[in-house]
Write a structure and sequence with these properties.
Layout lengths: L2 H20 L29 E5 L7 H8 L7 E5 L8 H7 L4 E3 L2 H9 L4 E9 L8 E5 L14 E4 L5 H12 L8 E4 L2 H9 L5 E4 L4 H5 L4 E6 H5 L6 E6 H6 L1 H20 L1 H12 L10 E2 L8 H12 L27
Parallel strand pairs: 1-2, 6-7, 6-8
Antiparallel strand pairs: 3-10, 4-10, 4-11, 5-8, 5-9
Helix pairs in contact: 2-10, 4-12, 10-11
Protein name: Tat (Twin-arginine translocation) pathway signal sequence
Keywords: Signal
Organism: Pseudomonas psychrophila
């Protein structure tokens, strides 16, 4: 067995057998590995003949579905990921809303816009959060660019992974508050894994990059970090939730609940074991470990309303949705999260 498979087998053993430790039998070597899972380790009672495959992208990213799968959290549940190949970031929410995929992880404004356009999906798990030491996205410039303050961006080209998401709206909101004319900025789409190189070669002046890809830019001596999204809004816009195709959740409520359970457990495990989680991602996507930046997740992935209202307000102010047409509760539900306890 190769080293990667050895590691995955070890992690699965720790995750699956962690319950043994709770019964008073300690599995040697697993004490740290299961530190984050105990809080949220719900018992799944589904049988093999009830298993439902859910369609999911197979993208080179730091993702809770991949982590949960590596840890064995879908074993014994009523849901299994069926990876269907890579899907470009801008297409994930539209394809979730039409059922081409069953779950998708992308930012709140994309979900709101999709719902407003009549697509059938809803946020069911909160996903990532922004911390000062683990931001959702970072802003980079060339070290010799002379760009140091918001006004310097006027007349420049900014690259980010898609229109309609956090990188566009958080940035524009902040820049307007700083007196910047955002119409004087050239906004272009550059995938996260191409942002560092595109910036370094001078094809753009600012790159907004998400983890884990931001690690390369962070360690590139020719580049300089300008800000993170934590600097711009204190993390309010950093919730990166998981959404489900509505028809899938209506037809498969138990499987939907098991998916949310698995990724919530994985989120807590990642928060408790950030370096081990980075190793899983490094091995999975073939990125050097020292370049893989950590993620932080909302405890138990319970959705709260302020991050959603934040983006509803932005979309209304940007003229992207009609004022009052979408309410917070149209966007999310905690009904499939076994750890929500009273949240709806």
């Amino acid at each position: 067995m190769n080293p990667i498979n050895n590691r995955r087998a070890f992690l699965r053993s720790c995750a699956v057998l962690g319950a043994v430790g709770a019964a008073g039998i300690l599995l040697p070597g697993c004490e740290k590995k299961d530190a984050g899972a105990g809080k949220s380790a719900a018992v799944i009672k589904g049988r093999a003949d009830q298993v439902v495959d859910f369609k999911y992208p197979d993208n080179p990213s730091f993702d809770l579905v991949y982590v949960a799968d590596s840890l064995g959290y879908f074993e014994g549940s009523r849901a299994r990921p069926k990876y269907i190949g890579r899907i470009a970031a801008p297409q994930i929410i539209p394809l979730t809303g039409t059922g081409e995929i069953d779950f998708g992880a992308r930012m709140v404004p994309l979900v709101i816009s999709a719902i407003a356009s009549g697509l059938d999906l809803k946020v069911v798990a909160a996903g990532g959060k922004t911390l000062q030491e683990a931001p959702h996205m970072k802003y980079f410039v060339r070290d010799n660019s002379g760009i140091v303050k918001p006004k310097d961006l006027e007349g420049k080209t900014v690259g980010f992974n898609s229109f309609g998401a956090c990188a566009e709206f958080v940035t524009k909101k902040y820049l307007r508050e700083q007196g910047v004319n955002v119409d004087k900025i050239n906004w272009v789409v550059v995938p996260d894994n191409q942002g560092e190189q595109t910036l370094a070669t001078g094809n753009i002046d600012v790159a907004i990059i998400h983890p884990p890809s931001s690690g390369g830019a962070e360690n590139n001596p020719a580049l300089r970090k300008l800000w993170s999204d934590y600097d711009l809004d204190g993390g309010l816009g950093g919730m990166a939730p998981y959404s489900v195709f509505g028809k899938f959740s209506r037809e498969n409520p138990e499987a939907t609940r098991d998916v949310v359970n698995a990724i919530a457990r994985a989120a807590n495990w990642v928060n408790a074991n950030p370096d081990d989680a980075r190793k899983i991602t490094s091995e999975r996507i073939g990125m050097k470990l020292e370049l893989v930046e950590r993620f932080a997740y909302i405890d138990d992935l319970v959705v709260t309303e302020p991050p959603i209202q934040y983006y509803i307000d932005i979309l209304e102010n940007e003229g992207k949705i009609k004022k009052g047409s979408i309410g917070v509760k149209d966007v999310y539900t905690n009904e499939f999260n076994p750890f929500a306890q009273g949240h709806v």
